[in-house]
Amino acid sequence: MGQIALEGLEFFAFHGYYDEEQKIGNKYGVDLHLKTDLHAAGATDKLAETVNYEILYRVVLEEMQRPARLLEHLAHRVLDRLMTEFPQVRRAQVSVSKFNPPLGGICHRARVTLVRKRK
Fold this sequence. Notes:
alpha+beta; GTP Cyclohydrolase I, domain 2; four-stranded antiparallel sheet; 4 helices; elongated
């Protein structure tokens, strides 16, 4: 087993509970941590033996382009896609952050993290 991580992905997107947030948009961050078997890729040096980072990024980008009210829902959608499109992934953790959330005070980011294990 091994871990693949994509950290610090940044997007400008139109998520938020309030209608205004969905109109003006905001900056978001995403971190992915995936557990999968990396031994074959390590031995063969072949991309087909591992999870392609470009495809991972594309999956996240596509979900970030579809508005959501809640970060929880957005993270759930990303997890659904990862577990569907990458059957070799045994465990996935997704963190979604909203920078400068509208809380009425200073907050650098709000973050949710969801984890799913394959049965």
